[in-house]
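Figure caption, in words: inputs first, then the predicted bound structure.
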Amino acid sequence: MKKRLWRFIPVTAIVVSMLAGCSGFTSSYSELEGAAFGFGNGKVGVSMPAQELQRWNQDGSNIQADLEKAGYEVDLRFASNDAETQISQIKDMIESDCELLVIAPVNGDSLAEVLAPARDKGIPVIAYDRLIKNSEAVSYYATFDNYMVGTKQGEYIRDKLDLDNAAGPFYMEIVAGDSADNNAIYFYNGAMDVLTPYINEDKLVVKSGQTDFETVATDKWSTQAAQDRMDALISEYYADSMDLSAVLCASDSVALGVEKSLEANYTGTWPIITGQDCDIANVKNMIAGKQSMSIFKDTRILSAKTVEMVDAIMHGGEPPINDTDTYDNGTGAVPAYLCEPVFADVNNYKKLLIDSGYYTESDIE
Ligand code: BGC
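Bound structure (beta-D-glucopyranose present):
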């Protein structure tokens, strides 16, 4: 791991030691720190990709609530899935004295320039869920194990089709995520590392021939773009009686587009469809038998871990880190905390999502 170039001296710690040193106070650091809490812990800027998308709306609310509970003022912005909007929002956060930034980028490659002043001003940056590339301003990364998400999707297709024993061939198509999102390649690689041996044996056949990441990527993870591409694939390759056995979908947003397209255009046996996020629309589709599985990423855990990181940075503690070498953002490996993604399907969704209070029964009716 490349050592990050700088460590943060928390603002509250400086104020506290100045107070203690200058006035002869005998209070302990923790008493003074408690006093500092009374005045608020500082302002944190939280920049999320889009409020319109369930995933990010939920992350935004969770993290705002958790930060406020921990005594921080929160400047929460959503970028309407537009990289330029996010850049101007972040610029504003830096200029309006946010002391720390938590950012899930719309485009992981577009933030190096706007974040340069954050580094100069000593404003720590936590990349949230998605890595920010080529910026030394990024101090930590809080996310899920993204490669494991893809592995679970690939293993599901392998096991459901019994690829180790069945003769095949089975037909599969691939709908990946946004190539501007660093996570997308991890999901793709995780799944393809499981499935490629069967593709090489011609047991699993991608009839369109569209297998490389750039070709199967979906701009902005758009449901509509996935639907349009699936429409084209069906009309060109699956319009006859040929069955499609599986569609490897990287996320629920693209799975939804694929499901809409199949409903409108496809007459064969319904394929296995993967997903991730357990979005409400997709949980409904799992119950209705239109989506086979999803990956549950409990955003409450990601938010709580991020707030632990924030607190440690602001108060001079050790942030929770369980990975120091996977995520090199182009300036060195970013110390990360990876939460565990969990397999979800129609058999366990109640326990995972309802019993845990993530959704209510009426959310998914
Ligand atoms: C997230 C996924 C999400 C996708 C689309 C990815 O960066 O990790 O959970 O489905 O973006 O919003």
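The chain has 13 helices and twelve strands.
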